[in-house]
Amino acid sequence: MGRAQWAAVDAYLTDTVLPPDPVLDAALAASAAAGLPDIQVSAPQGALLQLLARVQGARSILEVGTLGGYSTIWLARALPAGGRVVTLESEPHHAEVAQANLGRAGLGDIVDVRVGQALDLLPGLAADPVTPFDLVFIDADKPNNPHYFAWAQRLTRPGSLIIVDNVVRDGSVADADSDDARVQGSRQLLASIGTDPAVTGTAIQTVGAKGYDGFAIAIVEGSRNGSR
Predict the structure, then answer these.
(1) How is 26-46 classified by DSSP, letter by letter?
(2) Which of 70, 91, 126, 149 holds its CA 20 to 30 A away from the CA of 1?
(3) What domains are there in the chain, each with its CATH number?
């Protein structure tokens, strides 16, 4: 088995388990037409994010890495009345495409797309009324994952969920000597989850239309100094 088989299974699962969704299909088509890279989550992964947000009862969600807004739509649809998503995107063109996709989805009023480098925008969220966040989804530049995760802890509360995508890197995460900054970012993130008493988490390998990768998920137990 290989990537073709994984993609075929993903297609089967999508067709069998998930109902047709013209809005999400249009978001993918618009992103492709605008030249955005095809690196958004798959449909089954998007549905998982939505289910996790619903199980969490999330009213306030932070997303680091918007791209064309595909995962943002999945997350925003999980919100109850009055809920909010703040999503951070470094590329103005990507943000423009995302805003159009979110508008078509009828979600423009509940999703706040903020444009700029995430590490410049995150400190400003500390005093924002939308904080603390009930769920954080991190899917941006991988070398900065440890920094994004640290900020996610600061901007959440005990019981919040933090999800980080693409941490397995085709299995390269197991290579301690890798010179790939994305791999080392994943390794530092996972080491933090494993040693920080303020979170409890795990990481899962996945295969599918997006290849061989995986995600980490952690629940916030207390403050970053270890108190609970």
Answers:
(1) HHHHHHHHTT--S-SPPHHHH
(2) 70
(3) 3-220 (3.40.50.150)
